[in-house]
Amino acid sequence: MPSAPGHSPNFALVPTRFRAIVPPSGMRPEDTLTLDDLARWSEPGTHLAVLGHPVKHSISPHMHNAALRAMAAHDARFGAWRYWKFDVPPERLGEALPLFHSRGFAGLNLTIPHKVLALDLIGAIDPAARDIGAVNTLRHVPGGYEGFNTDGYGMAAAIAQELALPLAGADVVLLGAGGAARGAAVECLRQKCRSLWLGNRSRDSLDALVRQVRPLAGGTPLREFLLAALPADLPAGALVINATSSGLRGDEPPPVDLAAWPRPACVFDMIYNPPRTPLLHAAERLGIRHANGLAMLIHQGARALAIWTGAAVPTDVMQHAALSALDLRP
Ligand code: NAP
Q: Region 139-149: what's the mean pLDDT?
């Protein structure tokens, strides 16, 4: 799927300041919309949206609309494309998806808590997404939506970009056993990591994750542990991936003490807001290469936009828009 800047038209030629486009209804893509807004939908053009609950914090409309404006400078079709955000409670996802389909929404992103729920509500599922057991990207096809998962791709692309580290051949220590960890574990196995160590706070979700990924492991050694009891034989030079939500609040201790391990090569934290979690602070203090999850957010979004549009997507424009939305511009 063409989302790498190297394969893109020269988006650098696109002016960086764009006219804000206000649709006839007065609704703006930055607004948080509801199913009531969808029921009376009459916006012209081609529409995309992220559905979540809550979803107010999402910066996806900023990233996607910036990319679409840049793409429209090369292909006028995209001038009529808009990306919105809708707050959809989980108990209404079943009625929401046919409504979005009937309103002609060309693509949807799903975020918390819809990624797993949607599996039973869509007709076709990409095999990689089925292995993960979650979808974050839906594409409009006749009769319904087809589901994909671009989170694993986004993570691998971010780790390659930010840490120059291929997953192939890496010893990976993955922290967490929720939806994000599922995608990460499947991607690490798909890309033939050398070994995969799965660590989680609680036993039940760790067991469920291990049950799900073990059939996909083939010959790759798979080890499990509780965060409270680090194994003595953790490999040196590992890639540590934080897929827990520990660090989101900024004031909690890191999920593990990096100093108590054989020295890892790199630490990747999926959290991007706050931009530096206590785990990344610890990595910095110890001189370990590290990166946060912003590039993952951008690459998973760029991949989704490429799936919907079939066109090259300017990841650099998405990154600039994301940094602006988070008020983190250099
Ligand atoms: P989730 O399904 O709710 O899973 C949360 C995980 O975090 C569980 O394994 C949970 O452990 C663990 N956890 C929560 N608080 C903890 C603490 N204080 N100490 C240790 N472990 C703790 O969430 P998710 O969807 O997998 O998302 C996980 C994180 O990844 C979130 O921060 C999310 O923002 C981030 N993420 C980023 C991107 C991106 O594009 N950058 C994409 C997806 C997700 P238990 O099982 O013990 O409860």
A: 96
What is the layout of strands, in order, in the sheet containing 46-52? 32-33, 81-87, 46-52, 107-110, 137-141, 144-148, 124-125
Q: Is the pLDDT of residue 35 over 80?
A: yes
What pLDDT sits at residue 195? 98
Judge if the beta carbon of residue 133 lies within 6 A of ligand 1: no
Q: Which atom from ligand 1 is nearest to the alpha carbon of 154?
A: 40
Q: For 212-238, what is the mean pLDDT? A: 96
Spell out the long-range contacts of 218-221 with Cβ–Cβ below 8 A and sequence spacing 24 or more: 218/189, 220/189, 220/192, 220/193, 220/194, 220/195, 220/196, 221/194, 221/195, 221/196
Average pLDDT, the chain: 91
> Residue 200: enclosing H or E segment and its boundaries?
strand 195-200
Cα distance between residue 280 and residue 290, in whole Å: 7
Torsion over CA: 290, 278, 245, 264 (sign): positive
Which residue lies with its CA nearest to atom 6 of ligand 1? 244
Instruction: Band the pLDDT of 25: cuts 50, 70, 90.
Output: low
Cα–Cα distance, 193 to 191 (Å, whole number): 6
The pLDDT of residue 29 is 78
Which tokens hold the place of 280?
Answer: 């990344």
Ligand 1 centroid distance, CA of 243 (Å): 5
CA-nearest of 299, 320, 306 to 48 is 306
What pLDDT, in 10s, does the model give residues 15-24?
433 444 445 5
Q: Is 135 in the pocket of ligand 1 (CB under 6 A)?
A: no
Tell whether ligand 1 has an atom less than 6 A from the beta carbon of residue 278: no
Q: What DSSP element (H or E) covers 132?
A: helix 127-132
Residue 176 to residue 209: CA distance in whole angstroms: 9
Decide if 192 is catalytic.
no
